[in-house]
Structure formats: C-alpha cells, structure tokens
Amino acid sequence: MDRSVKKTNRLKSRISPKKHPKPSFIRFMGVSLGGGKSDRTVLTILDYYKSHKKLVISRVLDRLSSEGEVSADLKLYETLHEYRHHLKQIAFDVPLSLPKCFRCELTCPGYEACDEEEILWLWKQHRQNKRKNKNHRLFTPYTRRCAEELWAKELEGAWSLNDALGSNHAPLLARGRFLARRLKPHWKSKLIEVIPRLSLIRWSHQQKLMKSMVFETRKTFQGMTAREYVLKNLVKELDLFIYDQDKTFFIDSLVAFDSLWAALTAFWVFQKKSEARPKSFPKNEGWIEVPRF
Please, where are the H alpha helices in 16-83? Predict the structure, then answer.
C-alpha cells in the first residue's frame, strides 16, 4: 500500500468522531401563552439533573412580542428551537385541539340526539358532574371538549375552567394550534396541554397547603404574598433551584407563575406522576395532562 494512503488512514482513525457522553440533564419547557399581539407570553425552562436528582430553573423568558415585521409567533418558535437541546417535553397552558363539533362533518341532529362517541361521553360525564354539583352547567360540544368536562369538577368552587372555544380561550386556541402545527413535524410527541391552576391545586392537596393562600395566588393584590408562600413550599419540597431574579418574577407575575407550573407538570408527566386517560375516554379527543401524587 502507498505510504501516503497509510498515513491518510492513520489520520482518519485519529480524528474519527468520539462518542458523545450522555446529556447531564433533561429539559422541560412550560409556556404560558398570551395573545399573538401582546407581550404576555412567558417561557420557563426547567432542567433535571438525573444523577443528582436536582431540578433547576435555567431560563425564564418573557416579552416575546412582535417587533416590526417579526411576529411574536416567530420569536417564540425561534426561542423554543434555540433551547431545544435535551428537550423532553413542552407544556402549553392553552387548548391544542378542537371540540368535537368543530371537527365533525356529519349531518347534525343536535347534540341531544347525537350518537357520536365524544358526545355520548360528554353526556355521561355531565350527568356524573351534575350529581355532585347541582349547579354544574350543561356543556356545549362546539365549545367544550371531553377533557374539560372531566376536569371541570375539580375547579368548580375555586376557579372556573374555560371552554376551549369559550370567549376567553378562542383566540388562544387559534394561536396554540398554529404554533403546535409548526412544532409538530419536529416535536410531535413532546407537546402536551396542561392546566397550571389544576396542577397547583393537586400539589397543594398533597402538601396540605392553606387553601385560602392557594386560591389567592390569582388575585391582584393578595396574589404576590400567596405566590411567595407557594413558591417557598415548592423550593423546599422539590429541592428546586431558582435564581433570585426569577423567583421575584414568579412572585410578581401571574403569567410567569403559570409557566412555572406548566414546566413542572411536564416534569411530573415524565416521572409518570400524571393521570391516565380513562378507558372509556374517546380515542380522537385531545387530552389535558394533570399530575397525580
């Protein structure tokens, strides 16, 4: 063999790519999504160092709003892409799927006479909820999804659960689906939908936190004190590291606080600490991840 060829082969063996070590952390993202024309969106990035069983809030990003001809949607997409390394899941606090009636193309007999799987399930769940709370309102299948009817009972008396196409959520559903459509080719299995308020309630029950303080977290004036109270418990019980400036932001901003709970819920889903779909739950319906402790 020619000497130059032998030399080249030796060089190739020396510079051959080394095996990369396994990542030292797993990443979770929580997005509290505002309208596309506002600056109310907050992204919290949570890193889990498995070897040390340590949770770290590594980034909190806000004011992902439009600038000139650069949309807030593009800014958020690019930010998610920038921090995608070792990403396990992204949790959004807005609906990512449409109600059954918006997806249906059949001749409509009205939902009182409809025998589609999703509508029958909604009727069954509504009657169960009605037995527990006589004030539970009748669903509208063109605004409400099965998952919302399922979890509504846990928020009644505390906070109401918005319908996917209710007046408050419809624009957010539109934006959430737009972003999910763009993200799905890359991260289809990583996108989940959560309800930060319900995750907080589940955690507060497990930790036996003061109910009055938990419910005040969403109030304008008492909210800061209440969020600080909840945050102290989180940091202590989860051994959660948060930079001081981020801690202040979570206390000052309800939107940031929600993004934190979204990220934590994504982590609990990874840990298999979340509710499973009921066996009878319609297969084509969107699911909302709720922690189970």
Answer: 72-82
pLDDT per residue over 200-258, tens digit each?
Answer: 999 999 999 999 999 999 998 889 999 999 999 999 999 999 999 999 999 999 999 99
Q: Which CATH class is domain 26-97+171-270?
A: alpha beta
Distance CA 148, CA 290 (A): 11
95-113: pLDDT as tens digits: 999 999 999 999 999 999 9
Strands 42-49 and 191-193: unpaired
Give CA–CA dist 257/136, Å, rounded. 28
Domain extents in the chain: 26-97+171-270, 100-155
C-alpha–C-alpha distance, residues 31 and 60, integer Å? 10
Is the CA virtual torsion 171, 172, 176, 177 positive or negative? negative
Token pair listed for 44: 């919290």
